[in-house]
Design brief:
The complex is a heterodimer of chains A (440) and B (461). In chain A, the strands form two sheets. Chain A has a five-stranded mixed β-sheet. Chain A has a four-stranded parallel β-sheet with strand order 7-6-8-9, sandwiched between helices. In chain A, helix 4 crosses helix 6, helix 14 crosses helix 26 and helix 24 crosses helix 25. Chain A is globular. Helices cover 52% and strands 7% of the residues of chain A. Chain A has 440 residues and is of the alpha/beta class. The relative contact order of chain A is 0.10. Chain A starts with 25 loop residues before the first helix and ends with a helix. Chain B folds into four domains: 86 residues, 2-Layer Sandwich (Uridine Diphospho-n-acetylenolpyruvylglucosamine Reductase, domain 2); 119 residues, Uridine Diphospho-n-acetylenolpyruvylglucosamine Reductase, domain 3; 110 residues, Alpha-Beta Plaits (2-Layer Sandwich); 97 residues, 2-Layer Sandwich (Alpha-Beta Plaits). In chain B, helix 1 runs antiparallel to helix 3, helix 9 packs across helix 12 and helix 13 packs antiparallel against helix 14. Chain B has 461 residues and is an alpha+beta fold. Chain B starts with a helix and ends in a 15-residue tail after the last helix. In chain B, the strands form four sheets. Chain B has a seven-stranded antiparallel β-sheet with strand order 15-12-14-13-17-18-16, with helices on both faces. Chain B has a five-stranded antiparallel β-sheet with strand order 5-6-10-8-9. Classes of the chains: A alpha/beta (440), B alpha+beta (461). The interface between A and B is medium-sized, with 28 and 36 residues.
């Protein structure tokens, strides 16, 4: 076979992406999947070699090849450790795009990525059965009767992933504009993520309130669409681009100082819009402007003059670094500083805090055993800290850690750092209310 | 091709999921850390010594060549399956079986990652000194099979100084146990040391008894700059003559310094002829400090233009950053590098570097030189693009001249990477016919059918 050509395969990796790989194998030491399976084929070095063999026409796409590229957690640990600057995780993602373009796709993929993720209302309807299951007392009943034990372990684990759902999605409840408490210092557009709206509504509610407490006027556009990460993860780059264009047109006219998100994954994608649309003559500049404004909530709060809460939370708290925050956005210090602002919090570092938790979006569905094996390492590190609370700024990580705490029996509460911060502000208010009433 | 009935038999031994033969798997086990490639017919991953033994028995009966492999970080192509057959992947043998604190001896399986093992014993206040650069991505078994070294060798010796005993599987499948926990042991020929550095040609190492030391509590690091290469070389001996044995004396020549600066901008002195990174360590802080003072004084007496001693851990890391950045910056410069590993008497280091520079100029290929000045082990790295046939041809000529030079100066081909296949053309020059014939004879005793890692380390008889 001869070298494949980019004219025929638009997303074919280029030579400079793999040529200088010296095959030292250092990436193997950082790959959460390889460290569990101990199979070279699963590791980043093999991904680079396989992508190269495909580009050079020595290897065709087989079901095995597809599975290998989809097994990658895209945690980017290999990108970060490579001494030469090769980005094996990126290569795996690009090979997914090649797969998407060159091979027939599973029938479910189109309805999920084109029909589901871009449409908030459909997402909201889809959580309805789960909502009823929780609200009608069925969950309590099922858990009490031990009926869940009849389910395969994978479904049992997934049953434990989801927190108590909000009655209505946050998108429907949250006002489009919230004025600051006190003097206005910042004009913020809030990017409400899909998971945040339908599942972790309390967190984003907290995010918006904390910002308002700290002098922000917060706009939350209701028509917001998915950031595009799920589609990117499944190789559909055209869909990512159309979502990006939509969101750019929605947010830029608000003329915000910053665009804030409390979802690590959304943040990492939004910060990439500039790169994703760099060849789009109409949107390249706008996308760059958009991406430059994007901040993770912890990154934003620690960059402004935030007022520390006076309410106490007495707990030992540890922090898990989401891959999409620590490596994709290089936000490491800010979430920790945020937690340390809270009176009463005893902060403890866990070992390997930036080791992937095994979530990677849908791995618990698609690669259950790997996902669980990677998660075990994380949960043991959590357990070793003796923490009451593990904080992390990513809904995917939160669900995975919640699942893991149940599966591996680690007694720990999983929260977003912003939730603890808002809790501390509320306790402060309650204390003040108490003091006033006793004063009377 | 491996017959289906044999594949089935192997699957029964190790489990179906641990017998691999998809095109992707065969590619993934076709390479190591060199640029060489050759696909096996099958990859088998046993979980323990017993399974290794059963797999070997089958392979022996069926005349299947077997190439043992750890994490594939070798630099001499010793684990490339040129003869096809089976890659025996040993990474699943990854248990630390015992850490005997009373005797300071650990029992580990071959697939344990060296850095993981080090971290485990260090948490107990113990120390496993061998520190090859591949420490995070190489296994104890691979380190033993190649007798890996590292910067700390000057004071602490190489892997073989820490192996008291081995469990290994012979090509026939028989299990061999050598040595034991007794420190002194002259009962019989020393088969442990025979297997050390044998590059998987004699037996498959599956377990090892490793000697541990108390962990040194204090470390001091200095970066010393020279405008004359000979001054750097003189410093090494002068320090040792003062009665100080530093843990490491690492050398970078001017081409190395300039390559690092060009790509990584660390602020290294680009007009220097050489930099030494010297580290003293021990369990008494005052002694370690005093030793470093001696090092600094001697270095200045020998003509060092600058001596920087790290005062904090952060500064220490900063000093090491230069040395650790060598390989990455080389790889950024050209698509391929061939890292040679010659070893010369310490006093010959300046002459060796001068000759390497001449060879580099003659063939118009960049060669950077760094390495372990304390023990004369140099790493001339030739940078090239393998896709250019003319360049590749010149690389082969350069290698030949470098090896010839090393032997001429009283040194040898390889200090720690091993012979594999890449250095075999020069083996006779280094060892002579008699030594090679003797080694081939030893091989025949262990492996009469010549099935275990055939054609590696020395030519097949």
């Amino acid at each position: 076979m001869a070298q494949r050509r980019r004219e025929n395969i638009p997303h074919l990796p280029t030579e400079e992406q793999y040529l200088n790989c010296i095959r030292c194998g250092l990436c193997l030491s950082a790959c959460p999947i390889y460290r569990e399976t101990l199979r070279e084929t699963d590791g980043p070095r093999a991904h680079v070699v396989l992508a190269r063999k495909y580009a050079e026409g020595e290897l065709d796409i087989s079901p095995e090849f597809v599975d290998l590229m989809y097994k990658c957690l895209d945690c980017e640990a290999c990108n970060a450790i490579c001494p030469v600057g090769i980005r094996p995780a990126d290569l795996a993602m690009e090979m997914r795009q090649v797969i998407h373009k060159t091979t027939p796709q599973p029938w479910l993929k189109k309805p999920i990525f084109h029909g589901y993720f871009p449409h908030p209302l459909i997402q909201e309807l889809s959580v309805l059965p789960l909502l009823l299951y929780q609200r009608l007392g069925l969950q309590t009943l099922a858990r009490k009767l031990g009926i869940l034990k009849l389910l395969p372990r994978q479904l049992q684990d997934m049953e434990h992933m989801v927190p108590k759902l909000p009655a209505r999605s946050l998108r429907q409840v949250l006002p489009e504009e919230i004025p600051p408490m006190g003097e206005e210092k910042h004009r913020v557009a809030f990017f409400l993520g899909c998971f945040q709206s339908t599942i972790f509504a309390q967190e984003s509610e907290a995010t918006v309130r904390v910002m308002a407490r700290n002098g922000c006027r917060v706009f939350t556009p209701k028509q917001v669409k998915c950031c595009g990460m799920p589609a990117a993860g499944y190789g559909d780059i055209d869909l990512v681009k159309s979502l990006a264009r939509f969101n750019i047109d929605l947010f830029l006219p608000l003329n915000p100082d910053v665009i804030v998100t409390d979802c690590a994954t959304c943040g990492s994608t939004l910060k990439h819009y500039g790169e994703i649309l760099k060849d789009d003559p109409e949107y390249a500049h706008k996308a760059e402007v958009f991406s430059a404004k994007v901040r993770d909530i912890s990154e934003f709060l620690m960059s402004i003059d935030i007022r520390a809460p006076r309410g106490e939370i007495r707990a030992r708290v540890t922090y898990h670094d989401p891959c999409h925050l620590v490596r994709a956005q290089k936000v490491r210090k800010q979430p920790r500083d945020l937690l340390k602002l809270i009176p009463g919090v005893e902060f403890v570092e866990m070992k390997e805090s930036d080791w992937c938790c095994g979530s990677a979006g849908t791995q618990i569905l698609t690669h259950y055993h790997n996902s669980l094996a990677v998660n075990r390492r994380k949960m043991e590190n959590v357990r070793a800290t003796g923490a009451d609370i593990v904080a992390t700024g990513c809904p995917g990580c939160q669900m995975q850690l919640t699942m893991g705490s149940n599966h591996y029996n680690v007694n720990v509460r999983v929260v977003h750092p912003i939730q603890l911060l808002e809790e501390a502000y509320r306790r402060e208010e309650a204390q003040i209310a108490d003091e006033t009433s006793t004063g009377e | 091709m491996i017959e289906p009935r044999v594949v089935k038999e192997l699957e029964v031994v190790v489990g179906k999921e641990h017998v691999l033969s998809s095109p992707e798997d065969l590619i993934a086990y076709s390479y190591d850390s060199t640029f060489e490639e050759h696909k096996p017919d099958i990859v088998v991953s046993p979980a323990n010594t017993e399974e290794v033994s059963q797999v070997m028995r089958i392979a022996y009966r069926e005349n299947i060549p077997v190439v043992p492999r750890g994490m594939g970080s070798g630099l001499a192509a010793a684990s490339i399956p040129y003869s096809g057959g089976m890659v025996l992947n040993l990474t699943r043998l990854n248990r630390i079986l015992e850490i005997d604190q009373e005797n300071m001896i650990a029992t580990v399986e071959a697939g344990v990652v060296t850095a993981d093992f080090q971290a485990t014993v260090e948490a107990m206040g113990l120390f496993y000194p061998p520190d090859p650069s591949s420490i995070k991505h190489s296994t104890i078994g691979g380190n033993i099979a190649c007798n890996a070294g590292g910067p700390r060798c000057l004071k602490y010796g190489v892997t073989s100084d820490y192996v008291l005993g081995l469990t290994a599987v012979l090509p026939s499948g028989e299990i061999l146990k050598t040595g034991g926990k007794a420190i002194k042991n002259v009962t019989g020929l020393n088969l442990t040391q025979l297997l050390l550095g044998s590059e998987g040609t004699l037996a498959v190492i599956t377990e090892a008894l490793l000697r541990l030391m108390p962990k040194p509590k204090y470390t001091r690091t200095a970066m010393v700059t020279y405008t004359q290469l000979d001054d750097a070389a003189r410093t090494v001996n002068a320090i040792l003559l003062e009665g100080v044995v530093p843990a490491t004396i690492e050398l970078m020549d001017d081409t190395t310094i300039n390559t690092i600066e060009e790509y990584l901008h660390l602020g290294l002195p680009t007009d220097a002829a050489a930099i030494l990174i010297i580290e003293t360590d021990g369990s008494d802080e005052q002694t370690v400090l005093r030793e470093m003072e001696t090092v600094a004084r001697v270095a200045r007496e020998c003509g060092a233009t600058n001596v920087r001693v790290a005062q904090t851990e952060a500064e220490r890391n900063e000093l090491w950053r230069g040395r650790r950045s060598v390989s990455p910056s080389l790889a950024r410069r050209r698509p391929n590098k061939l890292g040679e590993d010659i070893s010369v008497p310490r006093s010959a280091i300046p002459e060796a570097i001068r000759r390497i520079k001449a060879i580099s100029a003659k063939y118009n290929l960049p060669i950077v030189v760094f390495g372990h000045a304390g023990d004369g082990n140099l790493h001339p790295n030739i940078l090239f693009d393998k896709r250019d046939p003319d360049e590749w041809h010149r690389v082969e000529q350069v290698s030949g001249e470098i090896f010839g030079m090393a032997v001429e100066l009283g040194g040898t081909l390889t200090g720690e990477h091993g012979v594999g296949v890449l250095k075999q053309p020069y083996l006779e020059m280094a060892l002579g016919k008699t030594a090679i014939a003797l080694q081939q004879g030893i091989k025949k005793v262990f492996d009469p059918k010549g099935l275990l890692n055939p054609g590696k380390k020395f030519p097949a008889a």
